[in-house]
Prior knowledge:
The chain is mainly alpha-helical. It has a domain at 65-153: Orthogonal Bundle (Cytochrome Bc1 Complex, Chain D, domain 2). It is 41% helix and 3% strand. The chain has helices at residues 8-27, 37-44, 69-76, 106-114, 133-136, 139-153, and strands at 82-83, 88-89. The protein has a two-stranded antiparallel sheet. Strand 1 (82-83) and strand 2 (88-89) form a beta hairpin. Helix 3 (69-76) packs across helix 6 (139-153) and helix 4 (106-114) packs across helix 6. The relative contact order is 0.11. Residues 64-153 form the Cytochrome c domain. Residues 30-61 are annotated as: Disordered. InterPro entries: Cyt_c-like_dom, Cyt_c-like_dom_sf. Keywords: Heme, Iron, Metal-binding.
Amino acid sequence: MSKMTISPRLITLLATAALAAGALAACTSDNATGPSQQDVSEATGNAPTRTISQAPAEPEGDQVAAIDAKSIFTTNCGSCHTLKAAGTNGNIGPNLDTSLAASDGVDAITEMIVEPNKEIVKGYKAGIMPVDFGKTLSAEEIKALAELIDENAHGAA
């Protein structure tokens, strides 16, 4: 029987893969927040220099970053819908430049985004538009989208 030789390069590769797998397992474990300050202090013998007890408070007033509704639209809606103001020309769903009723304001458009199968535009079928935008987008993002569509879809140039 011949003896198998393992090169140092292969050993290094396997060790690196094992370390990466361990790091990945640590990232996906139930302890996703990482070690506590006490764990770090005990392991290093150093006392923490500051204590972090909570995430920073939400910014207030004009500190809130403006929501880029056009970007949200092009990323989430533009491949299916045409909206000239967003520079999109999707044709899977209704053309929003021409299909909304004049009475479809921000509230109605918000409902169309969150509950897309509640009312279906003639010529289209239920189940085409994703039904999870109410979960994947924040309330502020949905409101910004509805306002963008409302401002630009009613015969906008």
